[in-house]
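Board notes (copied after class):
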Amino acid sequence: MKSKHYYPLLSFLFFITIFSAFTFNSSAQTQKQTFKKGNRVWVSPFSLKDEKYWRAATVTEVHSYGGKYSYSVTCDPQTKGSSPESFLVNEDWVKPLKAENKTANANADVQPQTHQNKTQTNPTVQQQNTTVACFASDPDSKGKNALEQSFRGAVRTDFEREPQPGEDGRVTVSFQNFTIGQPHPYRVYEDPNDAQGKTIYPVRATFTTCTDYNRRIVLLKRERAFSCYKNTAGEWTCEVVAAANTNVKDESKSIDKPQQ
């Protein structure tokens, strides 16, 4: 026979469990504000880990929603005479600006602009000074040797796109990692059919494509495995091959362009 104290004890334990879960969730959702308006920061406008995309900027507004913070920032102009670019980024893509960050961008040849004494009261004014555009494709010369340069060019041309006159959707490509494995002869059922009798170079690349639409840009970071070989025309070609875990970590981000 069950003790008469069994059910009150069970109810008490249930109450403690619910209370603990609520307390944990509440604390987990609360985020400490790291930066204030006017702070100089180091940000990634496209939310990419690659340091070459990070920029020096100034916090112009602080936003809080559901216990989490995001920041409106204005990046330092990259060239003389260019307009400053403004973005909205969350806490994960903002760091304190350090001395080594101030000279990280080779093209940043103007003095940083501070905005501590300026108040953004009209969103339209901020949008007029906002530029949202895709990066240029990496030059193939970034490859460590002639072979890698050829493979980079083959992959790049497969994903790049120049739209027809009057159309949008231009696509550019930037590589974050590029690895070439040991070459091997053609393998039935594993390598592309067109590569029969060819020497195959396995390649794994991490790269980001940026698609430039009229109203937004779309960034897609992905990792893919390729089989690279010379086609019948004697040109290097790289085909995507099936490989485990090459598409499960794709990262996509859309950034709207300011409306005029």
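Comment from the instructor: The chain has two domains: 40-128, 140-256. Residues 228 and 238 are 4 Å apart (CA to CA).
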